[in-house]
TrEMBL record:
Single GO molecular function: nucleic acid binding
Gene3D superfamilies associated with the record: Ribonuclease H-like superfamily/Ribonuclease H
Protein name: Ribonuclease H
InterPro entries noted in UniProt: RNaseH-like_sf, RNaseH_sf
Length: 138
């Protein structure tokens, strides 16, 4: 894959602990520009899903990165391709998807690229960070 040096590549990862009644979930990102880490973020909450945490991380990135940016979210989670679709009454996480849609015009372009988990070590690193954040959150 060729990386454009003027595009922000935001790697996304998450974990969810379905085994505990608290169902703690965590999401994280690492934003890079021209191969350098320029920002990172991690969030955790209970009684939720990793999808909500991933969308929360996306929102944070779109709010934090400079206006008029080109942003590519890099993830292995195909669910995130819904971030820019008009929610329906049956849409899960409609509130967060609506917020993503509100933030898209703030930037020149925003997209999601689905990549293989094992090909990019950063995805494994983010998964480990989110798992650790869940443990600390409890």
């Amino acid at each position: 894959m060729t990386f454009n040096p003027t595009t922000y590549y935001v790697w996304l990862g998450a974990s969810c602990d379905y085994a505990h009644k608290e169902r703690v979930s965590s999401g994280a990102y690492r934003a890079e520009l021209d191969g350098k880490v320029i920002d990172s973020f991690i969030c955790s909450d209970d009684h939720t899903t990793e999808f909500r945490m991933l969308l929360t991380a996306m929102i944070h990135a779109m709010e934090t990165l400079p206006e008029s940016s080109d942003i590519v979210f890099m993830t292995n989670v195909s669910y995130l391709q819904n971030f820019n679709r008009e929610p329906t009454p049956d849409t899960a996480n409609a509130d967060l998807i609506s917020r993503c849609r509100e933030l898209i015009p703030r930037h020149t372009s925003v997209s999601v690229k689905i990549v293989p988990y094992h090909k990019y070590p950063v995805l494994s690193e983010l998964h480990q960070l989110t798992h650790q954040a869940m443990e600390e959150y409890r």
